[in-house]
Each structure stands twice: as C-alpha cells, then as structure tokens.
Amino acid sequence: MIPVAFIVLVILTDGSSGKKVCSYQDVLDHLNLTYGNSMFKLTRPVLDHTQVTIVELDIILYAILAVIEKTQTFIPFIWASMMWTDERISWDPVQFCGITQISLPRDLLWKPDLFIYEMVQKDNSPQNPYIYMSYDGKIFSEAVINVVSTCKMDVHKFPFDTQQCSISIGSAVHCVNEIRLFPSSNSSRATQFSREVMKTQGEWEFLQLSVASSNFTFSNRQWDVLIYTFTMKRRPLLHVINFLLPILFFLSLDLASFFISDHRGEKLGFKVTVLLAISVLLLILNEILPSMSNKTPLIATYCIVIFALMLLSLLETILVTYLMETDSARQEKLRLKEDLEDKEGKVKIDDCSAEAKKWTGCSCICKMSDGEKLHELLPSPLKVNNSIQSEESRVLLLILEELKELQKTLHLHVSCIMEGGASVQWVTRINRAFFIFYIITVSLFLSVLYNEWIS
Prior knowledge:
Helix content is 49%, strand content 21%. The chain is of the alpha+beta class. It folds into 2 domains: 21-235, Neurotransmitter-gated ion-channel ligand-binding domain (Acetylcholine Binding Protein, Chain: A); 236-353 and 402-455, Neurotransmitter-gated ion-channel transmembrane domain (Methane Monooxygenase Hydroxylase, Chain G, domain 1), CATH 1.20.58. Helix 5 (237-256) runs parallel beside helix 7 (298-359). It is rod-shaped. It starts with a helix and ends with a helix.
C-alpha cells in the first residue's frame, strides 16, 4: 500500500513541472478525423485534381507455398507495403508533444485501389486493421497477402526446369493522370530482403525477384503497372528418385532379359510385366504434367521412347519364340514320321523272315508220309539248284530295297536336322543383332536427352 504523502508529493511534482501532456486523440480531434467525417475517404487525397498521387510499392517474398503445374497456379505468400501522401492531412509535432506518427483504422482514410491482375481467388489471409499516418501527410500501409495467381509455365525440361511467375499490380479505376506507381526497392534489394526473410521454399529454390514498371493503354487511357517476377528453380531430387530412376531400372531389367533362355516362356512373361510397370508410371506422369504445353516435355519423350524400345523388344521376343516353336513342331513331326517308318520296316522284315522260312523248309522235306517214296518226294538236282538260286536272288532284292528305304529315311532326317540347325542359327543372329541395336539406341538417346536437360 502506497503512503498518501507519497501520492501527494508526486502530484505536486507533476503539477510544478508544468509539462504538457498530449495524446493521439488530440491529433485526431485537431484533424477532425472521426468515423462520422467521411471527407478523408471519399475522394483522392489531393487539393488540386490535376495533381498526381504518387504511390510507392514494395513487395517481399515470405514463402513459396505451392506451384501446381497441372492447373498452372502459383501461390506465394508475400508482404506488401504502400506509401502515398494525403495533402489534406498535416500537423505541427511541436504543438502535440513531438508526435510525428500515429496509427489509426484503415477505414478512416482513402486508400489506392490496387489489385493483382493474375489473382484467381480471394485473399483470405488476416489483414492488418491499422495504417500509419505521418505529420506531413504520408500514409503507410502494410499487408500480408496469400496470392493464388495464374502462371504460364514451361515444363519442357521438367523436373530440371526453372520457372518465372509474375504478379502485376495496378489501379482499377485511376489512370496515369491520377495515380503513378513506383517501386520502393530495386530488384537487387527486393531479392536480398526476400532471401533474408524467406521462411520456406519446399520443392522450389528461390533465385531472384525482379521489379519492372510498365503501362498499357485501354479505352484511350494509359495505366501504370508494376510487374514483380519471381524466378525459382525446381529441386529435382524427389522426381529423380520416384520417377526417373525406376524407369531406368526397368530399362536395365529389360536389357538383362536378353540373357534369359528363349526355350522357356518366362522371358515373354517377364517383358510383359516390365512393360505394364512402365504403363503405370506413365499414368502418374499424366497426373503431374499439364495437359497443354508449348513444347513436349523431355520427360514425356524419355518415357515414350523407352516404352517404344521395350515394346520393340517384346515383339522381337515374340518373333524368336514363334521361330523356336515352329522348329520344335518340325522336329516333332520328323520324330513321328521316323517312328512310323521304323514300324513299317519291322513289318517288312518279319514278312521277309516268314518267306525265307517257307523256302527253307528242310524239316518238311525230310518228313515223309506213309506210302511215299524218297525219290518221288525229292526234286531233281537241277530243279533244286535253280530253286536255290531264285530264292537267293529274291532275298537279295528285298535287302536292296530295304537299304534304299533306309538311305532315303536317313537323307530326310539329315536334311531336317540341317534345317533345324539353320533355324537356331537365325534365332541367335536375330537376338545378337537386336541386342546390339538396343544398346546403341539406348546409349545415344540417354546421352542426347541428358545434354538437353542440362543445357
């Protein structure tokens, strides 16, 4: 509890000093600046209507929230400040205890009707409810703006691309005879300030913020425009890991599939699986890139060419498989024919043995029936001799015919084997030639594409 004597002493000291006490309200009362007085917010703040209001604008980039290629949308988070002069406002700081600047609600004063031409959505970020007013009539206004703007993007070198997105700021109704726009900071200072206060960049690396003044003519009136161009470079590591490298790995697998044997069906199934995997990655790419672009993106060329090479490799495998299956069918047909001929030859040999047995029936000659004489059963020596010679000739002719059939079969078998060997040689040559073509084409294509990307 403070003693009463001390309170009285303080009051006496303040009263004896005679120091004048001022408040901000005194300044507002002097200017008659109240909510009921609309004089300061209805019209442009000049005493002579021919006098031009000069507005100085400054923009600093806080963060790059998003750059959406599919919709070609650029979303930066910026800090903007404006300064202009209200010729109807002034006071003497000496009369008001040295007060040179006060803050007041922004609804009490006129403000330039500046807007962003590329803005596609309303700014929902919290606004600063106050502005600063100086004794000489200078007004300072600051705001943090979440801009959602359109941006014409060139994705030809995606994901190694550099984008430039612009924000054009101008007045809605006042031409150059009424409002002139000038930048407070040049390009180098704006870039330096932006790098110092940059909070986050995400996928993009901020490079430069350039400022340029321009004007255009509409309805025979000229308008001032300030153009702020943001230059940023994409960080490609995520896209390289998630997209470019998997496609390169699939290409390596397709190259390695040439070492799989053609006699099995696994090679064809393996190539189809790799081709389907590339198709899935192409669908992902379609979701990333915009539907319309001035040039075909290099990454699309990269995917399409690799997809075409894999498709060509699949067709080559189908051709080789067809040749191998045709050769196998020919070999199977030859094997069946040989088995059939072997069976027919065995039947003939059995018939020949039966015929020979019929002509060499000594046991039948030695057997005599009852009442027959030996000299009546035995033929004469001349007949026996002729019969033996004719039988030997017949047996020799049968043997000769069998040898001819065997020679013909052997000749057919050898010719089929030679044809099968020729088919295998053609398959080997096709595989070797296509593998060399594949390696050369892939090497040249990747080299040219890499040079295009880094140039």
